[in-house]
Amino acid sequence: MTPVVRARSGFSVVWLIPILTAVIGAWLIFHTLTDRGPLVTITFHTADGIEVQKTRIKYKSLDIGVVETVSFSADFSRVEVRARLNKEAAHFLRRDTRFWVVRPSLSVRGISGLGTLLSGAYIEIEPGQGAAQTLFAGLETPPVLNAEETGKRITLVSHRLGSIDRGSLLYYQGVVAGEVLGYEMANDYRNVLIHAFVKAPFERQVRSNTQFWNASGIDLSLGPDGMRVKTESMQALLFGGIAFDTPGPPDAGVEDISGLVFTLHEDLKSIQDQSYASKLRFVMFFEDPVRGLNVGAPVEFKGIKVGSVIDVRLEHDEKNSAFRIPVVIEIEPERITERGALMKHSPLEAFQALVKRGLRARLQTGSLLTGQLYVDLDMHPKTPIRLVAAGRSEPELPTIQGNVEQMTVTMRGVLEKLDKVDFASIGKELEGTLKGANAFANGKEIDGSLTDLSASLVSMRSILKKVDARAEPLTENLDKALIAARGALEQSQTTMNLVDGVLDPESPSHDSLMRLARELATTARSIRTLVDMLERNPQSLILGKKPAGESQ
Q1: What is the pTM of this model?
Q2: Checking phi first, is residue 226 left (phi over 0); if not, alpha (psi -120 to 50) or beta?
Q3: In a designed cystine with 394, which of 176, 201, 283, 548 is the match (CB 3.0 to 4.6 A)?
Q4: Rounded CA separation 493/509 (Å)
Q5: Which of 185, 156, 186 shows the shortest CA–CA distance to 168?
Q6: pLDDT tens digits for 479-519?
């Protein structure tokens, strides 16, 4: 039987499956395309720490994207990193947006990025302002300040950078008030421009007359009060720092300083020295050697600094083939308060009048330890005015010898006198004297005298022993005599006239008895004195009693 094939009209249900699949796929593609975030391209000098599908893009520690590809730029000078951000982060991509790689680092601000030791490096984003864009040049180092920080940006100029570095702190009255953003060479390549940021509320203290100085290192000074060590902070000591202050009332209004470039002074002392606007230059010619006198050495008057040395050099005079050493100094008259008639004259005329009265300059030693010299101005009216008159444009100050040179001249004179002494003859005479003394000390006369003296001492010792042996029996005999006298008195009492047991004062025996008692007492005292003297000085029996002025 032959099958009958009939054509079926209408839509087949089988086609629903591919159509549904296509619709679902198209919807997924549309959903994926619409929900996917923007693709951003960031260029860096190196791809150190960046890995495809591992390095994250973060904002405030939250993941907002991931790196998709890493490749070279067309000229191979940079590395192009393409990263896909979340859809919600699309509004971050503006003209001022900044990207940088976060790695472990050690800087003046401390240690940062330690968390990346375990999780790996990541790219940090800081949203900015301006038109939308997707191509950015990444920062090689993290920015010092974030975009949310308020304050003022300032520019400083200095002859040298020193220990100032990116991240060094700014101090106002010892309080951290800002940071150094970076530095660059000036157009003349002789100075350095330092860019810094002063945070709020300290930016109100920055005005056109604000003074900045380098606060790095240690300020060590040695004075009458001892050694003084001063530093702004340990962080400024290690990593450098800048301090600033503004003269005048602290509550002054805010001033527009845009476009100003401030001078960074070496230290606070240099600012104080520059506060004196009036300066006078003088030249001096010293006879003393100027070894130890350097440019910048102080010029003092009565122990107070009134200026400094600005030039010391050797000068040759072709006319007489002589060499001179002109020392040029700069005096600040404002350091001296004028009273009286000198106030009517100019500072130069006032100094010239002081020269006529005895103003002289001399070199003095500032430190015996370092040998540094300074110029000392003082009044010496009895000294002559000695001028070289070398034809220089600066007025000349007369000089005298310093204490060091005077001591040198004195020592030279003493040495010359010592050099004239005939030490050889003195030595020969001294040698002869010593030989004579040696011969006398070792001669026979000295030996005989010592023998006789030894014999005399033996005889003296024998005599003293005999005297000492007789002194004690003599004392015993005296005691016996006193006892006998007492017995005689008792016997005589019985033969005398007694009235109630008392001798009659009117009887003749009373006077005789009293005289006898007085004589016995005097005799006893004399004997006692003799015995005491013999006990102390037995030799007095032979040598006699010493005079009253000599000690016993």
Answers
A1: 0.49
A2: left
A3: 283
A4: 10
A5: 156
A6: 676 677 666 656 655 555 544 445 555 656 666 667 777 77
